[in-house]
Design goal:
Number of helices: 5
Strand order of the largest sheet: 7-6-5-9-10
Helix content: 25-40%
Distance between the termini: 39 Å
CATH superfamily: Glutaredoxin
Radius of gyration: 15 Å
Structural class: alpha+beta
Largest sheet: 5 strands, mixed
Strand content: 25-35%
Shape: globular
Length: 175
């Protein structure tokens, strides 16, 4: 059984428990098995090779997740191909692909954690005892060596992350 972090975040002021560890800078990024837009399995090893941004959201079809993902997409344009970016949610891969097309987001790949929740539990972002499987809002920067260089668990799920430290960590990690 995974660790449960009681009251780790809130949703509109109501405490929510998270399943899994709280990752910190210096930790090894845990492996996971998600599903990509082509319905193929994607693991941590499949993302390795450069600095990575993992943009974790409850659902792309919600206003704050929409804003957050678009903001990171815009900021990533300035970094070119130095960063591999992934949005992780429990949305179906079809919904993720549809959203990216409608939002014209082409520089972030989507990973669905709906199948077995392994990303959520390994990265400490799965919300416990929610009516549907959801991930909390979080952002991770991972180096090419699979070391977490920055982790932000947004304390209130209904709010956007603090973008500046994420962007600073990305820029520092790519040199």
């Amino acid at each position: 059984m995974s660790v449960v972090r009681t009251g780790a975040v809130t949703l509109k002021g109501n405490p929510k428990d998270l399943i899994g560890p709280e990752l910190k800078a210096g930790d090894k990024a845990p492996d996971f098995k998600t599903v990509g837009g082509d319905l193929a399995a994607v693991t941590l090893a499949d993302t390795t090779g450069k600095v990575r941004l993992f943009n974790v959201v409850p659902s792309l079809d919600t206003p704050v997740c929409n804003i957050q993902t678009r903001k990171f997409s815009e900021e990533l344009n300035a970094l070119g191909d130095k960063v591999a970016a992934f949005t992780v949610s429990t949305d179906l891969p079809f919904a993720q692909t549809r959203w990216c097309g409608a939002a014209d987001v082409k520089n972030i790949k989507n990973l669905s954690d709906l199948h077995n929740g392994s990303f959520g539990e390994a990265w400490g972002v799965r919300i416990k005892d929610f009516p549907v499987p959801f991930l909390t809002r979080a952002v991770f920067v991972v180096g090419p060596d699979d070391t977490v260089v920055y982790a932000q668990y947004v304390p209130e799920i209904a709010q956007e992350p603090d973008y500046e430290p994420v962007l600073a960590a990305l820029k520092k990690a790519i040199g």
